[in-house]
Amino acid sequence: MGNKYFRVTMKHPAELPEVDPVHLKPFLGMQPGLYLLILYLLLIAAVLFVIGFLPGVVRGGRYVTFQGTLSDSGVYVDDIYLGSTDYQYFIGSGTHQITVRKADIVVTRMTLSIDHPVFFTWLFHRTRRVDLPITETLSETDKKAIIRFDLAEIARYSAITTFDSVTVYPPLFANLQTDVEELGIDPSVYGLAGAYITSNEMYQDAKSVTTDDTLFIKELSVAGTLFGEEASNGMAGEPAVLTETDRKRVSLDAGDFTIDGIAYQSATFVMGGETKASYPDVNQAGVTLDVPSFAIATLPVSQWLWARFIQDNPTWAKTNVKELSEQGYVDENYLASLTLTTAFSPTGRPVYNISYSAAQAFCQWLSLLTGKEVFLPSEAQWSLAAQGVTDYRQTLTLDDDGSTTPSSLLGGVWELTDTRYIPLSRLCGYTEIHQLADRWNMDGDVIVKGGSYLNNDITASQVGVVRRDACGDQLGMRIAWMVDNGKN
Questions:
Q1: How many CA atoms does the CB half-sphere of 136 hold within 13 Å?
Q2: C-beta separation of 412 from 350 below 8 A
Q3: 358 — phi, psi (to 5°)?
Q4: 432: burial class by Cβ within 10 Å (0-12, 13-18, 19+)?
């Protein structure tokens, strides 16, 4: 075989043209290495300033925790509401005027100076605690308003019987204890607060309050049988007894109209009866009460009579519902669906969609018109008049049957009373608890009685509860007035 071979052809690399090397020129007499180092350092410093110092320069201040002397007080910084004490807030650097209020009473005024830390304030919060001692001289009226605020909070939370992670129970009784001790208040107020216990959470909170007041010990004992570990399924209250009372028909003269009524002489009777020892059944627990002489209307207040009231008091017209609502007297349902007029003869159709506050204004007007003390009946007065009543009216057209018993006490409309709702009052000394509530000028929800035309299983013992501004299409009123030994 012949010899084979391969010829390999090599390419010569391309020849590049010669280029002059680049040399950085000196700047301000500095060699490139030096001023580049300075530029890098300035860049790092700028970044460090933007990240570490600029936030503090722009938003200087500290996170301040205000520790109030009184519980759950409101903090104002330069007259701007900040929030409640015991929380942390950011306060800008400078000098500020701090005001602390509770129940709209100023308890502290002070000046607070905040410095201006700047280094990494967004990462490391600068904090400070500020104690807020009472600096103002508080009158007895001021102190009473503060405690009444605590009582109102306890009453408000008593409407909630189940608490969880969403509906959180606050330390209401602990707050009350703080304020009572700080202000030097008579500890008998614990007895009134204890009558609002309606859950195990409230009971356990109340147990944590230390006091030697025997009335509160009684309240805790009652609450324990209903909500504590020692809760029982027994019975509560006195057995019902039908009391015969002297009564007769009377009338209230208002000039161009009269209101028929039944007068009752003073009596002692059992309101309610024996019931289960559980809440809310104890709302009907029997309790013996003394009731002075009084008269109660045979029928609820009619739509015609309310039209007469508005005729003399146009402020209470339906067209003013917005203004009345803003003042807290009624809600947006005031007189809804009603067209009131005095052009027609009085009828037996009761007025409804009125509130407790509106009813009080009506009674004041009628008192001036008649010269008698006219008022909403108390729970006890209404219950005495309703003893033995079984006639239930599933209608809004009501009439007087001419007997010596008020008509339509069951059915028609729920009737407002002038009695506060205090959940455990029947088991804790009904008269004494309500006297305490009077002493503290407690507002709160009020009791309604009798059911409406939509209810068919209401008894005279059952209790309803409404807010003072609430208006409902099943909510009306019946008046009562003072008499002397059954005389009108």
A1: 18
A2: yes
A3: -65, -40
A4: middle
Alpha carbon distance 275, 148 (integer Å)? 31
For residues 427 and 447, give the distance between their C-alpha atoms in angstroms, rounded to a whole number.
Answer: 17
CA–CA gap between residue 160 and residue 86 (Å, rounded): 25
Question: For residue 97, which of 83, 84, 108, 87 has the smallest C-alpha distance?
Answer: 108
Tokens of 127: 């904090």
3-state secondary structure of 364: helix
What is d(CA 469, CA 335) in angstroms, rounded to the nearest whole number? 12
Helix (H, G, I), strand (E, B) or coil at 324: helix
**More confident of the two residues 8 and 366:** 366
For strands 374-375 and 392-393, give the pairing. Answer: unpaired
DSSP designation for 49 = I
Q: Distance from CA of residue 5 to its chain's centroid?
A: 109
Write out the two tokens for 119.
């280094």
What is the C-alpha separation between 386 and 451, in angstroms, rounded?
12
Q: Which of 103, 127, 131 is nearest to 115 (CA)?
A: 127
Q: Which pLDDT tens digit goes with each residue over 144-156?
A: 999 999 999 999 9
Q: How many CA atoms lie within 13 A of 444 on its CB side?
A: 28
**Minimal CA–CA distance to 271: which of 463, 142, 437, 120?**
463
Q: How far apart are CA 45 and CA 389, in angstroms?
A: 90
Give dist(CA 309, CA 347) in Å, integer.
15
- The owner of tokens 């001419």 is 402
Residue 447, classed as helix, strand or coil, is strand
Distance of CA 378 to the CA centre of its chain: 23
Q: Specify the pTM.
A: 0.86
- pLDDT-based confidence at 57, cuts 50/70/90? confident
